[in-house]
Every structure is written in C-alpha cells, then in structure tokens.
Amino acid sequence: MNSLTELDKKHFIHPTSSIQEQQQKGAKVIMEEGDGIYLTDITGKTYIDAVSSLWNVNIGHGRVELAEAAAQQMKKMAFSSAFSTFSHEPAIRLAEKIASITPEGLNAVFFTSGGSESNDSAVKLVRHYWKIQGKPNKRKIISLKRSYHGVAAASTSVTGIPEFWGMAGHMMTDFLHVDTHYNNTTEQAVQSLCQAIEEAGPETIAAFFAEPVQGAGGVIIPPEDYFTRIREVCDAYGILFVADEVITGFGRTGKMFGIENWDVIPDVMTFAKGVTSGYFPLGGVVVSDPIHEVLKKKSVGTLFHGFTYSGHPTAAAVALKNIAIIEEERLVENSKQMGDALLHGLKKVKKRLEIVGDIRFVGLLGAVELMQNPATNKPFSSNLQVAPKVIEVLHELGVVCRSVTYDHTNIICFAPPLIINQMQVDTLVEAIYEAILQVQQQLGIKAE
C-alpha cells in the first residue's frame, strides 16, 4: 500500500481534487474491487457506494455480463472509426435503441466519450442549427445558477457554479446564468429567465440548458410546474430547450429519463454516465426530428465536429447490454421503489435529529440538507464544514458519499446503484443517522 500511495503522489494528478492534500496525505482510499452496491479497498475494508461512484454505476459493480459484452466485441472488432460516414453495427444498433427509449420525437444520436463532450457538442450543434438557417447571431446559451454541465471549454461556461470558472477563467463568451428554482418559486425562476432573454434579445439566444434535477449543485428538484413553464417560454421566444440527462438518464430518477417526471419533451437531450453504468466511457446528444430535418437539408459539406471515440464499437456493445439489464431487471421500477423507501427512512431520521432540514428524492437521486435551525432555514457558518464532516464519519462507517457546500449550503447527496434492496437501504439509513448524530454531538447539539 505504501508503494502505491507514493506512486500515486508522484505520478497521478487527480481530477477535481486538492493537489496539496494529495501530496500531504496521499490518496484518501485506493479501491480494488467492486461487487453490487459495494466497493472494497486494498486494505480489505468494504464500503456502500452511496453515490454510484460518480452518479454513474447504475447496474452496480462487478457485472460480468458487461465484461463479456466488451470482450466479445473486442475479439470481433475493438475499434473502427465513424468519421467520413464509416459505420458499424454496434453504433447503429445503439442509436436505434436510444431513439426507442427517449421521449417521443428524439430520434437522431451523435455519440461522444462522456458528459462534458456531450454538452460541448450540444452547444456547437444548436449554434450550427441556427447558423445554417441564416441566424448566426443566435449563439448565446442560458443555463441555471448551481448547474453542472461539465469541464470542457463550452460545458465549463454552461456550468453555473463559479468555482469551476476560477481554475482557468471562462473559456468562452456568450453564456448567461439565471436564477435556479432552488429557494425560489417557479414564477421567480421563470421571470429571471425571461428578463435575461429580453435583455440579451431573443434573436441572440440559441438555447436554454437545464438538468432535470440539478445534481452536483445539491440534488435540486424542480417544482411540479417548472419545466412546463420553461417549455412555454422557450417556445414563445424561439429558443431550443436542452435537457442535460447526464446524471438523470437511464433509470436514476424512477423514469428512464429525468425529464419524463415532468411530461415535457426537450428539443435536445445529452447523456452519458448511466448509459454504460461507467463500465466504458460513452456519451451522446439526441436531437429532435425537426432539428435533424434541418441538419439533413441545410448542413452542407462536412460537419467538422467529432471525437476519435464517437460511436466506439466496444462502448456501444457495452451500452446495449447495460440497457438490456436495466430493462430486464426492471431497475427503473426498483429505482422508484427503493428511492421511496430511502426517503421514508430518512424522514424518520429527521425526527430523531436537530440539524436535518430538507430531505428530497426523486427515484434514487436525493439529498439531505443540514441546517443550524431547520425551522427557520438558518444555515451553518461555512467555516464549520458540517457536511464534509458528516462525509468523513460516513467514510469511517463504510459509506462512500459526497457533500455540496456551494453558497454556504451543507448538503449530503445520494445516488446508490439502482440494484439496491430494502435491507441495504435500511443499513444505509442507519449509517446516515449515526454519522449525522456524531457530527451533531461534536457541534454541542443534543438529540431529542
């Protein structure tokens, strides 16, 4: 282990991590094995993976079926380019499958290697869509504050969390961020969007991007009427609506795609993560039939956009098997049922503790918000780092989880694999109670 720790410090620059902390303390944990909802590190300690690693291991760890699907495709043809209209069966079949499960009218797929590439591609595609129709000034992208859409050039700028802009500054221009529905009414959030559109000029706006549920922003679930109003606003102003389903897709919210919870159909959807349950890098953009028709008629010559691994045959084969498992094992339904069970268990936890505020879930995507005074929504002082402390105790108790502390919030996020069962839910709930209780006691607050 010491050897691996030193090699890690010397050679591995970690994503979204503190470089200084890594150098001072080494890797927090070195994982070695995965099985179902569990991960085991190199010391033999086993953890519940309560966030599906990065919101993506939907069918759980250690699924031999996906290894076999990858091996079979690799033996036959591991890779072939999709540039210059070259094609192959796995990508064709996967595009067909995705079209069959997305909301009505979303039938054409552009493949990428992951979520950041998917949202970057969506930005370029919607701008191209308007340009070929003689409207090159429709370039601006509007998204929500606290939103997360990736870390590539455009997707960093679409992201509405300032911390992600600070590393290298804004990479691109023509990106606007409006008020989210978090701590706002639907009317207030919609008015913020309308005001931004009016001030910028509708003739300059290409698209509005939104996650059906804001994931990295703190699992922020919209009011029931929010997306209906958003759809109306986009239609009224002639703006495309892009739903970022990178986290919410493939059963995570108790529906195959998150936006289906609100019966709204976007013009464009982006996806990644759950499409392969993290077993192979893959993402994509799905466009509506009207957009595809415009592209077919007016996109003349080569579309100068694409990635080496767009439509990777092995990735496509893995995705096809992954989606088959989601369907065969009824994991979308299980996500709804176990999400309800987790919500029910955590509501009981709230009654036993003093610092638990809002608890919110849609399927197996949820959060617990910690407050100094939940009755008045009084937050903790940022320097107390309450949510990170709970995460540390959970780690000691054998639960991998994540916190969100943007804008002085203290939020614990949950997204366990969709295969979780009632017994495992009960174990997770008890660990959450114990972790929050310990931190509450450290803060000098007594439980009832």
UniProtKB/TrEMBL annotation:
- Cited InterPro entries: Aminotrans_3, Aminotrans_3_PPA_site, PyrdxlP-dep_Trfase, PyrdxlP-dep_Trfase_major, PyrdxlP-dep_Trfase_small
Signal peptide stretch:
none
What does the record list as coiled-coil region(s)? none
**UniProt keyword Transferase present:** yes
Going by the entry's taxonomy, the superkingdom of the source organism is recorded as Bacteria
Return one GO MF term. Answer: transaminase activity
Pfam families noted in UniProt: Aminotran_3
**Which stretches are transmembrane?**
none
Keywords annotated in UniProt? Aminotransferase, Pyridoxal phosphate, Transferase
Keyword tRNA-binding assigned:
no
Q: Which family does it belong to?
A: Belongs to the class-III pyridoxal-phosphate-dependent aminotransferase family.
Protein name from the UniProt record: Putrescine aminotransferase
